[in-house]
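Following the same procedure, sequence and fold were stored together, as reproduced here:

>
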Amino acid sequence: MKKAVVLLSGGVDSATTAAIARSEGYSIFALSFNYGQRHARELESAKKIARSLNAKEHLVISFNLGSIGGSALTSPELEVPKNEALPPPGGIPITYVPARNTIFLSFALSWAEKLEAPDIFIGANAVDYSGYPDCRPEYLQAFEKMANLATKISIEGKLRFRVMAPLLYMAKSEIIKKGTELGLDYALTWSCYDPLPDGTPCMRCDSCLFRAKGFRETGLKDPLIKD
């Protein structure tokens, strides 16, 4: 089987991306990060999703972006916004983590070069997302170009890397429908940025609101929400 490194956070988008890669005949090498995020609960979901999709390997890399700060996801002194209107196009919320996707993709590129896996999958989305600049198509194109300039395996002509973002132009509802068609169990996923003390989603952060909007528009029930 052809190999792919798949960035797997444990959320709806990354899980669906992994399911798509699997459906396209890839052997999945899943890559997750424990980077000091307040919602590290997502790593439990990433492990379950990787197992459910028969990932060839699941690598979890740890480092601490909290020492840099600058985001409500990594800095305890900053609060995750709640019950706010979803940001307008061009608005970048405080949950943006400085250069996070560049850091993640760099790790993915390193592993992909070692594996000789030309394709790197990321669940970036430019439709129903929080306005993060490192989810835009022009950013992904620029990283792909850099990857093929900066690696020994590409310079020697053995392969060319591709950054695959199959969800880039899909609404959240379309993403959920696609995953459902592929048999993905969304009960395994996690989206909340600021889990409650009892371990349940807050239902008020941006990520929870986007998730709720997606399930509402599909007419499907979110399996994480108990009656």
